[in-house]
Amino acid sequence: MSRAAIYDSLINDPDLINAGLNENLICVNYNNDERPSVSQPFAILRWGPMGAPLFGQNVRAAESLTIWVHFARELSSDYGRLISLLDVFDSTLSGLGDVAGDDGYTLSFVRVGDRSGDLVDDGFNTITKYANYQVFSRKS
To answer: Does residue 81 contact residue 121 with C-beta atoms inside 8 Å?
Structure first.
């Protein structure tokens, strides 16, 4: 599975762009001390481990993806905006299928998982929520 296929789909999604998220505000494994934006929401994509392999099938085990959405605490304490953003991520990712990657694998599908409760990130001084996804791919 090409992580680039996921990222490219997200940064080019018209609904995410209309929600104010662009390629500068959708970050992969962001680990700087300062948040990417003070005035706009932003998202951080964190890739996790793959599950157990699926023997005898052309589909690889699912790779874990967690998407964190943040918004400055000094601007809002309303988690509704973050929920709406995660709804758009859910819709975009669940709509992906058979997307060829440049690594010899094709994104088969994405399974939407669970979401966090309402959280506060004291390091970024933001309100935040996250959603989990399983990303499945197969050898092209």
So the answer is: no
Which pairing describes strands 26-28 and 42-50: parallel, antiparallel, or unpaired? parallel
Q: Tens-digit pLDDT profile for the chain (140 aa)?
A: 568 888 989 999 999 999 999 999 999 988 788 888 778 999 999 998 776 665 555 556 788 999 999 999 999 999 999 999 999 999 999 999 988 877 777 888 999 999 999 999 999 999 999 999 999 888 77
Residue whose C-alpha is closest to residue 81's, from 93, 65, 69, 95 = 69
CA distance 14 to 105: 25
Across 35-50, b (16+ Cβ under 10 Å) vs e yields bbbeebbbbbbbeeee
Report how far residue 108's alpha carbon sits from residue 56's, in angstroms, rounded to the nearest whole number: 16
Q: Which long-range contacts (CB under 8 A, 24 or more apart) does 11-16 make?
A: 13/88, 13/92, 15/88, 15/91, 15/92, 16/85, 16/88, 16/89, 16/92
